[in-house]
Amino acid sequence: MSRSFRPGSNPCVTMSCACRTSFPAPCPYGGIAGVALSPLRALILASCLGCGGIVSAVESDGPRVSEVVIEGVDRIHPDRVRARLGTRAQQPLDRSTLADDVRAIHSMRAFTGIRSDVQALPDGTVRVVFSVQELPYVGSVEFSGIGYFLTRSLRRDLRTRRGSHLDPLTLQRDRQRLRETLRQRNYLHAEVTSSTRVDSETGIATVIFHVDTGHRVRVARVQFEGLPSGVMPFFIQQNLANRSRSPFDEDMLTWDAGAVAQYLSDQGYLDAQVTDVRHEFFDSVESWEDRFRHGPNWVPEGKKNDRVVITYFVDPGPRFYLKQVSFLHDPEIASESELREAFTMRDGDPMRRRDLDRAVELARRVIANKGYARARVEQDRVVDEDSYEVDLTLRFEEGRPYRIGRIDPDGNRVTRDAVIRRAMAITPGELYNEDAMDRSRRQIMRAGVFRNEPPRPLSIDPIFDPERPEEVDLRVRVNEDDTGRFVFNIGWSSASGLIGQASYEERNFDFWGALIERRHWRGGAQTLNANVSWSEDRTVVGARFTNPRVFDSNYFLSLNFQRADNTILAWDERKVDVSSRIGRYFLDFDLLFSAEYGYSDLKIDRPRSDAPQDVLDLASPSAGNFHINSVSFRQSYDVRNNPSLPTSGFRASLEQTIAGDWGLSASHPHLELSGTFTGYIPLLESDLGGVTFLEFRQRVNYLQPLGSDNYVPFYARYFGGGPAPRHRGYQARYQGPRRENDEGRLARFGGTREWLSTLELSVPLQGTNRGIRAVAFTDVGQIWDDFDEDDQRWLTDLTVPFSDFSVAVGGGIRMPAFLPIALDLAYVLNPETGQSSRQFHFSIFGGF
What we know:
CATH topology of the largest domain: Porin
Shape: extended
Number of domains: 7
Structural class: alpha+beta
Strand order of the largest sheet: 24-25-26-27-28-29-30-31-32-33-34-37-38-41-42-43
Number of strands: 43
CATH architecture of the largest domain: Beta Barrel
Strand content: 35-45%
């Protein structure tokens, strides 16, 4: 740019633009040397001025690049590489951009040995050459040294995959990632190496990860040093991540130490602390080694290091006790005597957290149950370090009283709102009461159509609406269960041979919805069941309908039909049963009194030579026809938490059945008395809600003749044995007394008294109550008769000879709820003559 200026003249500028277009220079006095400019032309000239300045600066940085060459590529087109570069042909060379280009090529993860070179050309330009070594493609990734399932799991963690390039850095990181994953799965000594095999023709690589898992490390024993007397290590271990026989996780030792200190603090040792944690590795002794029989289970040989002994060194400090408790509250709401009576801890009790929390909650509920939905309790403690006593003061913040406004069910997409509302022990307009809400939760679960498991357990939440300051709404959050079930099974049992079943059950049926609006046939919490089952010796067809709350009232109704054709015993039998039962609930629906009328039509045909003598005495075909009109009365008390999948509570019932008396006709009148009890004791609960529980069942049955012939008919007598809930030490219908008939054959005679006790441990293998379960059981019982062969009459002696009890132990599997199959293997400890000491049972539970 040049400029000429004379004093008194019009200054002007002549400009040369880099785009090689000449323009007169703009003049600061409003024109161009001899030319008047419009505003648009002035803007164009200013742009060219800026363009020229930039180009001039660039031209001064370096020589121009004539071409960019990519050397060493084979399967990747060079243009794919050039597209990532900042260095371009026909542009000036920038040395700082070359380093960025090398990093850009490296980020493609397709090359190694990347170099850049600048070659000067005779015309003053340069050629930029990038030399690379192309990595092969990965054709397959394989594992050696591990099984199929572990391979599938580890493969998800890899970044080296089929179709990617074989990058050494990615491969190294994959090895590290696999080692970390294996160690998280308690393979603490796992080692991972890799090798590659490249096909010389195709250039495709095969990557092989060589995995040596070593021995999986488990906790052999957890021991404590310094525990105070009376503290059981077993209960401390239930709070630890590293407990005996569990996989060892070193990262959780610090957390476990805190859990130990917290447990002791909860037992009243308020200053408890863990001073040190040590763990030592041992080698497990395998079961096939001779020393396994008489030596230790683990030894410090250092060959496998697959067992760990963890030691916690504990300083519990002194134990603190409750000196006294004081209450700061409104005496017009609750008296101090009421609160003190509800507070279950007494002066001098240890400061156990569980006991204290329970006592404080019970005291708070005294006030909350009077309508004070927002009642809170604050604790003030004064600790005497000399006497190790605690003065406790409970400060109550009562708030205002509330009455129930609305009750809003939530989550019941199928079930009618009325099913939930009728189970509520509290109604709109009543004072807020948390005890009534607890009873409501239990009644809702007993409907049998909801779940109470994580992640969405049953809850009743108070909702406060600011527009209605004197009312509180209750939102009932439910999670509906899978109530419909269609089952088709085929199996085999050592007792019954080939077994099949086809059944349909709906536990949330709605009769009136099906009758009036066919689209709404579900949602009433009623049960409809249709069942067909068959085996080599028995065929059953049946249907049942149960309405636990007729018209949402306290009345119960059940209708039942069943036809059974079987040859299990020593004769052919066809039996048709029709019955109806009606009852009424009491005591918050825990107690049920019911009465049932039943009619049975029975036909006996083709008795075999090993049948009881009273069956062989049937002289004509018509003599094998029997009928029974009966009425029964049942009293049952049921406090189980869930009728379909109980894990706690119990059910007890008594039943009296009269056949052929009170104006009812029967071929052979008789009386039957029955008593059953089933109790559930929860032991452990998993994170998924699955409960390990102990189940106890007791059944006692008794038959007595009512007719003038003093005869208990053979078709009413007890023939025990078979799948649960029968005695599993016998084949189906093979338990009971035997007597010789006139043919000289030993016949299954049947009994008039039955006793059966069962103890069963049930463990959820999948962590949920609806998954697969393992069971271990013991069945103890026997069946006796009261027939005196000498006098040929039935006795009324009710003695129970316990020495005759048959004992069977065993284990089994229970399939998930949607596949109701039970498999049991029983071993008889004291088999009778001719009885097998081992019985396998395949059964389909949940039907008739």
